[in-house]
Design goal:
The protein is built from 18 helices and 20 strands. By secondary structure, the chain is of the alpha/beta class.
Length: about 525
């Protein structure tokens, strides 16, 4: 079978690339080893019938604000795309039984901050005001190939409008740790902890350089625009893109693994499937695949590529994550207040010291005593994901070791995730119970997905790293995934990479797939 392009992997970046190519008249096939498209954006009934759980990604705000959606909004909506907005976006709970949250109502957010520190409330309002004029430049940079004339134009325009001082300040923020950035702007520990928790959504502990940007952007974007989740599940974006691709003449082959990328004369010419079929690609093979798998498994070794392959072999995974999916008869009863039941996310990461400790423990191979928890309450926003009056809880356990060498609490003796995951899930439930007593009595069904399970389900998530590669400075921007190859090309002609392992990294924005497809069709 012959195509203009073959895309390996039906994650949202691969589908975005395929959709744009098909819209430009290319004949495209997408090949996916799993029986379901979506990669890390999937929704399934993994506990009980009628309870729809987002298996990994839940927050679709990046997709809602993406350039891809801006171009194809009406067509995707016609294929069933749906969002549900959350006015109460995220909150953090603290050891004293209080909470602090961000809602789209600025007076509500600033009022809660003012109760802690009037000075910080004023600083929050000032930061939001600055964000209004900063955001076009920052998001413009994050939405441009790296490096490129487009990214240079963004910097040039920012300099013309904002001056050299703004460029210096922005560069400092891009290099700063969360702690240094927050200490320079706010006083109260609870506000700093609430914002710094976003750093652990990537792999930025409070003192890791380069970690300030995400807490800043998430805090300000949620305040300015709110958060959105998928109507009926995060897979709404996958269903809509898949339907649009098929309507445009593209093909999606599910449950069919790629065994080998075919190369002839130094050029990628197609793929060999595990069932023996060959798909020819006259223009491009696009791998929505972790580069360590692409160059370590799907391509034959080539002495001419030795230096590049060595660099790829050093591409680091971020810390592992665990997912716990709960079917509940009612939402958690948070001791901090009934109002917490309306928030899309509740972070249980009460202080910077705890965030630093969990990161150090996981980096040393230890099961952390107190992991950082992101407790998603999607049915508080979208009740149709569960039977009437019942709920799902989405618990992401952040910063875990891929391989277990010990337990920092000295309680769990298992040293592999298959044996340890249920016991560790009990520790997580105990922590949630500290802030929401009685949770265990509400549980109707439970599914625990360890870091090892995450990799089994999606080989791109090496070691259970939901980011498909650390975002530390030496693996970000110009260096993602390998210095000199941040523009999606590889040393093999006509073979391209996209996905979370490439610029602009993890998230649901479909950035790399869309950027690559636009570059191929210019």
């Amino acid at each position: 079978m012959a195509y203009d392009a073959v895309v390996v992997g039906a994650g949202h970046n691969g589908l975005a690339a395929a959709v744009h190519l098909a819209a430009k008249g290319w004949k495209v096939a997408v090949v996916e080893g799993n029986a379901t498209a979506g990669g890390a954006v999937r929704t399934e009934e993994v506990t009980l019938p009628g309870f729809r759980h987002d298996l990994c990604a839940m927050n679709l705000s990046m997709f809602a604000g993406s350039a891809f959606l801006a171009q194809y909004r009406e067509e995707l909506l016609s294929h069933g795309l749906g969002f549900v907005p959350a006015a109460d976006c995220f909150a953090s709970v603290f050891r004293d039984g209080s909470y602090l949250g961000v809602s789209t109502d600025l007076d509500k957010t600033a009022g809660a901050i003012a109760a802690l520190s009037p000075e910080d409330a004023a600083a929050w309002r000032a930061m939001l005001s600055e964000f209004g004029s900063d955001a076009p430049h920052i998001f413009g940079l994050l939405g441009a190939p790296m490096p490129s004339l487009a990214s240079a134009r963004v910097v040039w325009k920012a300099w013309r409008e904002k001056g050299s001082g703004w460029l210096y300040d922005t560069a400092r923020m891009l290099l700063a740790s969360p702690r240094d950035f927050l200490d320079a702007r706010f006083r109260h520990a609870k506000l700093k902890a609430m914002m710094a928790a976003w750093g652990l959504h990537l792999d930025f502990a409070p003192d890791v350089a380069g970690g300030a940007l995400f807490p800043y952007l998430e805090s300000m974007a949620n305040q300015a625009f709110g958060m959105v989740i998928g109507q009926g599940g995060a897979d709404t974006i996958i269903k809509a893109m898949s339907a649009m691709l098929i309507a445009r003449g593209g093909e999606i082959l599910l449950g069919t693994a790629v065994d080998k990328v075919l190369v002839s004369g130094g050029r990628a010419t197609g793929v060999l499937l595990a069932d023996g079929r060959r798909l020819e690609a006259s223009q491009a093979v696009i791998a929505n695949v972790n580069p360590k798998n692409l160059f370590g498994k799907l391509l034959d070794a080539d002495p001419k590529r030795q230096d590049f392959d060595r660099k790829v072999s050093r591409f680091r995974a971020g810390p592992g994550a665990m997912m716990i999916h709960l079917a509940l008869d009612s939402l958690p009863d948070w001791t901090a207040g009934e109002a917490l039941k309306s928030f899309a996310y509740v972070h249980i990461a009460p202080d910077l010291e705890m965030m630093s400790k969990v990161y150090a423990e996981a980096a040393g191979g230890l099961l952390p005593v107190e992991p950082a928890l992101v407790v998603g309450q999607p049915t508080a926003i979208d009740p149709l994901r569960a039977p009437a009056g019942q709920h799902v809880l989405w618990v992401q356990v952040r910063v875990l070791p891929a391989e277990i060498v010990g337990d920092a609490a000295g309680e769990i003796t298992a040293r592999d995730w298959d044996a340890a995951k249920e016991a560790y899930a009990e520790r997580v439930i105990d922590i949630i119970e500290t802030y929401a007593p009685g949770l265990r009595g509400k549980i109707l069904g439970r599914s625990v997905v360890s870091p090892l399970d995450l990799e089994r389900g999606n080989p791109n998530l090496i070691g259970g790293d939901s980011l498909s590669g650390s975002h530390h400075l030496d693996q970000n921007f110009l260096f993602r995934p390998v210095a000199g190859y941040s523009r999606y090309k590889t040393p093999v002609k006509s073979l391209y990479m996209c996905g979370a392992s490439t610029w602009p990294g993890a998230g649901t924005g479909a950035g790399s797939g869309f950027l690559l497809a636009r570059m191929l069709t210019k």
